[in-house]
């Protein structure tokens, strides 16, 4: 009786070991980067585990690169890539352009159709002063809800056409998803269209026109979280950003940072 029970216990234990080994083996066969990047629909998000270091995104830099997508640059170089999202003109872009010109900084402005339609002279000034104008879609929808290529292309191509009509130049194939909402399918569609997708590694709540951060609040976020290779997202609609940009650029420069372009980040010519 004892021998039978003992054999049964040994058999059960052996079976459990086999099942456990199979589970461990299957888990090790999964690439965590692929899992992270294959979330069907998500909002771009960051966590900052260590001051002065690049944050952790909800997709890794390596996984994003498979789709020609980026959120951060080389963490060994004290370089900042400055970008602005421009949904509409709020009267502050001239001051922002003045500060950039003073510091010889070239930025990328991700614009929507309304911006080009209402502020063509500012678009032309951006181009004239050496900035890049990127694609933020024609109407700023939640692109993660767009699953068919035809609708995706319409949002992108309509803005391209409007930009070319306004400037006489083709638009750079740089894309930023509105509100950072995306899907793996979106990333693939953008890549298939020849686009590079850009998220960010540093931003703060600067887009509420009637609830602008104070200068102190802005400096607290933008200085404490800056890091080598940072892709910084600011909104050109922000009164605070227009007021602090000159000082902000000076403070970053004093910390030893230089400013690069998205061409340098992704290796485009």
Features:
single chain, alpha/beta, 11 helices, 12 strands, 5-stranded parallel β-sheet, 269 residues, 3-stranded parallel β-sheet
How would you describe this protein?
The chain is α/β, with parallel strands linked by helices and 269 residues long. Helix content is 45%, strand content 15%. It contains 11 helices and 12 strands. It has helices at residues 2-28, 32-37, 61-65, 93-102, 113-118, 120-128, 149-167, 184-192, 215-224, 239-254, 262-266; strands at 42-43, 46-47, 56-57, 69-70, 79-86, 108-111, 132-135, 174-175, 181-182, 196-198, 230-235, 258-260. Strands 5, 6, 7, 11 and 12 form a 5-stranded parallel β-sheet that branches. A 3-stranded parallel β-sheet has the order 4-10-8. Helix 4 runs parallel beside helix 10 (239-254) and helix 9 (215-224) packs across helix 10. The radius of gyration is 23 Å and the shape is globular. Mean pLDDT is 88; it is low at 1-39.
């Amino acid at each position: 009786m004892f021998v039978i029970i003992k054999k049964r216990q040994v058999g059960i234990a052996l079976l459990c070991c086999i099942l456990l080994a199979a589970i461990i083996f299957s888990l090790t066969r999964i690439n965590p980067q692929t899992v992270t990047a294959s979330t069907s629909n998500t909002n771009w998000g960051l966590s900052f585990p260590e001051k002065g270091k690049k944050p952790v995104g909800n997709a890794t830099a390596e996984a994003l690169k498979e789709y020609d997508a980026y959120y951060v640059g080389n963490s060994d170089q004290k370089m900042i890539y400055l970008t602005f999202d421009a949904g509409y003109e709020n009267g502050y872009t001239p001051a922002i352009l003045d500060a950039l010109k003073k510091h010889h900084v070239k930025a990328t402005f991700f614009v929507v159709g309304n911006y080009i339609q209402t502020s063509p002279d500012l678009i032309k000034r951006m181009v004239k002063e050496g900035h890049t104008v990127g694609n933020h879609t024609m109407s700023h929808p939640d692109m993660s809800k767009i699953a068919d290529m035809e609708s995706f292309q319409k949002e992108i191509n309509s803005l391209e056409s409007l930009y070319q009509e306004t400037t006489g130049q083709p638009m750079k194939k740089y894309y930023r998803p509105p509100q950072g909402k995306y899907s793996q399918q979106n990333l693939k569609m953008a890549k298939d269209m020849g686009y590079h997708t850009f998220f960010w590694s540093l931003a703060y709540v600067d887009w509420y026109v009637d609830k602008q951060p104070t200068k102190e609040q802005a400096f607290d976020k933008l200085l404490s979280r800056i890091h080598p290779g940072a892709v910084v997202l600011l909104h050109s609609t922000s009164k605070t950003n227009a007021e602090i940009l000159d000082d902000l650029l000076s403070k970053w420069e004093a910390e030893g940072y230089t400013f690069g372009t998205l061409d340098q980040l992704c290796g485009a010519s």
